Known about the structure:
Oligomer: single chain
Strand order of the largest sheet: 1-2-3-5-8-9-10-12
Shape: globular
CATH superfamily of one domain: Luciferase-like domain
Helix content: 40-55%
Number of helices: 12
Structural class: alpha/beta
CATH class of one domain: Alpha Beta
Number of strands: 12
CATH architecture of one domain: Alpha-Beta Barrel
Radius of gyration: 19 Å
Distance between the termini: 9 Å
Amino acid sequence: MKIGLFSFVETIDGLTEMATTANEQGFESLWIPQVFGLDTLTAIAVAGQTVPDITFATAVVPTYPRHPQMLAQQALTVNAAIDGRLVLGIGPSHQPVVEGSWGISFDKPIRHLREYLEILMPLLHDKKVRFNGEALTTRADLSFDGPAPKVMMAALGPQLLKVTGRLADGTILWMTGPKTIATHSAPTIKEAAEAAGRPEPEVVAGFPVCVTDGSAGDNDEARERAAKSFAMYGTLPSYRAMLDREGYGGPADLAIIGSVGEVTDRLGELDDAGVSTFAASEFGSRDQRAATRDLLVSML
């Protein structure tokens, strides 16, 4: 199992500094969300000019406000700018954002994402597509002949995992526990890919992680911090369904918290569950974050 870092950034300089440190420490990949600040792909194109070697990944770019042809052109351009080190993570976002913030209908998201991939993947690889769908249409020939990035879908439910296995290169998971990954996420996407004659898909799993001194007090403090910091994810239906499937009361139960030995054991469970890349979202006090980074570096 590979180890990467999953982190929010607010400035291009911050991304460049973070990527420089991660690269020097030997991390294979850096996973950057697209929320309401930086345009992640643009920031990656800039930072990747300065920082060599490390893979830059979006986790994830929302699909609804971006036509797949436009995203294909942007992703091809960014991937060429950073010498083929881009992984394009995409996902539907959430109904409250899509409808409440962007004013776009969230009707039939599985259909939307299937049609999105049926346009995006040919454009990235063949640079042309003729597609007339129920929700999306594209008739395009791209003149930019850059390398295609891998495409990872934020797929949680069974229908989208099957679509992703048939059409994309893997999935990016969040708020999804090890039992769910082992019995639901990994087998569903891998069986779909095999049935479609595609290579085995990657399973990237993002988790909050905090190395403590192992004492009850330090562990409790970290859990309280996780409960506050990640509370929002327990209110979103798609993540709530994954937490419920695992039997977790909330995001704090999913967070990987404990001593060096305890965290190491938890990461071993993820490896056994079928995770190909663990994307660490470090949190905690300054000392806890330093201890967490030290452990992750030791495991590279």
